[in-house]
Amino acid sequence: MAPLKQLERDNPIIDACFRDFCASHGILTAEDFLLHDLYELAAFAERLANSDRLKESITLMLSLIELQCRPLLNGMELLEDLHRHKHTLSTGDKGTDSLLQGGFREGQLTELVGPSSSGKTQFCMQAAASVAEKHVGRVLYLDTGNSFSPRRVAQFICASSDAALVQTRNVYVQEVLSRISCHTVYDIYTIFDTLQGLEVTLRSQVQMNVNKCRLRLLVVDSVSSLITPILGGSGSQGRALMVALGYLLKKLAHEHNIAILVTNHTVGAGEGGKTKPALGETWKSIPHVRLMLSRDHRNSDCTISILKHTSLFLCVFVFFLAFRRDCEDHNSQGQSTMIVLASFAIYAHLLEQCLFNQ
Q1: Is residue 350 part of a domain?
Q2: Cα(289)–Cα(230) distance, rounded to whole angstroms?
Q3: Closest to 351 in 3D by CA, of 317, 319, 306
Q4: Do 57 and 93 fall into the same domain?
Q5: Which residue segment(s) compose the domain that 273 sits in?
Q6: Which residues have C-beta within 8 Å of that of residue 120, sequence separation ≥ 6?
Q7: Mind listing the pLDDT tens digit for each residue in 295-333?
Q8: How far apart are CA 89 and CA 292, in angstroms?
Q9: What are 31-89's pLDDT values in tens digits?
Q10: What Å distances lie between residue 34 and 27, 100, 248, 337, CA to CA?
């Protein structure tokens, strides 16, 4: 559903006063109402001078939500939708694709967790180059720290391109780069505006039956830098905004068959120098897939492991990759190379056969 402001034209009671009241509780869209305790919201409204009008607006919002509810689907219909519309997209590396049994799944939110300088941004740019090139799809890259490098993306494209002549290769690289859009977002409210505008655009494209070079990958690098600043204190608004952002990302992924990749940093987990993904337990339940990337700075080797996967069997097993790169020089010899040290997919399949054939 649309942002609250877009509902005012047909429903004047959803005015600026009501929207300000909702925003103070982390409610920016109609869907956000489903993530809040409505009794608590009504109790807050009771304390204000215009409580009757606010409660009337809340009742109207519930009616609008009920009208927009999607029909229920059975298991066979969901499976058919998966096979027909939720394809896999290459990450740009054969080892990672093998780990994920094909790559990123459309309709799913994948989170890449890792400490600073572990290669998260390089991974994102490689994935963007791969989808724009191999799948001839559009990529939207939301950059929160000015870390996106078109030059680096071009190097990824050149490394996988078969074009021999320099002139031909340059034209090809420019064509692929034209399918990647990068937007800078510095706070949680900017990304909400960006994603809500994207949702309106995608819906209009569906109505006009525009399928040429559709959006296939959305990258947010990094989501933690947007959420962490609003989580301080004892208030619930920051947590509500975090959940609303996760819900909006998953909604876009499912309804428009987009693969979404977000990055998250790590924080200390107590004694022993151990680390864990940031953003806490509430965010933990949001991604469909959670990958951990760690780097040995002595030899530039990295280890990537699956922390969570909703559609792979026995995803707790670790899959090791040697990830050697030269991020500082950004030359073609510094192209990311991943060497598979263990085949997770084959091992999991064999183990599954052993367990179910006993």
Answers
A1: yes
A2: 24
A3: 317
A4: no
A5: 87-356
A6: 112, 114, 221, 222, 263, 293
A7: 776 777 777 888 888 877 544 343 334 344 444 344 433
A8: 19
A9: 777 777 878 888 888 889 888 989 888 888 877 777 666 667 777 777 777 777 778 99
A10: 10, 32, 12, 44
